[in-house]
Design a protein that fits this description.
CATH class of the largest domain: Mainly Beta
Low-confidence stretches: none
Order of helices and strands: EEEEEEEEEEEEEEEE
Number of strands: 16
Radius of gyration: 21 Å
Oligomer: single chain
Helix content: under 10%
Strand order of the largest sheet: 1-6-2-3-4-5
Largest sheet: 6 strands, antiparallel
Mean pLDDT: 90
Amino acid sequence: MATTSEIKNGLTIKFNNDLFTVVEFLHVKPGKGSAFVRTKIRSITTGKVLDHTFPSGHKIEIVRVERRKYQFLYKEDVNYIFMNLEDYNQIPIEAHLIDNPQFLLDSSMAEILFHTEEELPIAVELPQFVEMEVTWTEPGVKGDTATNSTKPAKVNTGAEIRVPLFINEGDTIKIDTQKGAYVERLKK
């Protein structure tokens, strides 16, 4: 058992019979009363983010998590099939364990988090940014760079995102996979 003094971003803990990852934390020492730790924790099973306050010195159960690099191969029914590049073992991962699976390209790399005691996959993290080609969008007009207006566009995985007006079909764009948002147009 550990205490709240060991809380940091990315730490995985067992809390209320579920696994949570610490998203944000803040140690607070008010002028009056005892100190506490204010946290935002994300449930690994449901994805919900909770605000929770732990009293200072409170016992927490840290879960050992291991990150392993895997390559995405294909989608089969409701599962996504990944392959370990070291031993070529393939494992199926359910869609709810993947943040924004619509940005998975064939043969792209991802990190799978494993609960080491049970050897179970608990989450899949995509790279922060991916490069994709715009397959459909309304044509851009020269001079449409002055405003912050956006339009819908589809990328080569079928995902739909909002892009600036100057983006055209065939353009390669950079996408933030965590926010599911356009970042920039890449030069050819």
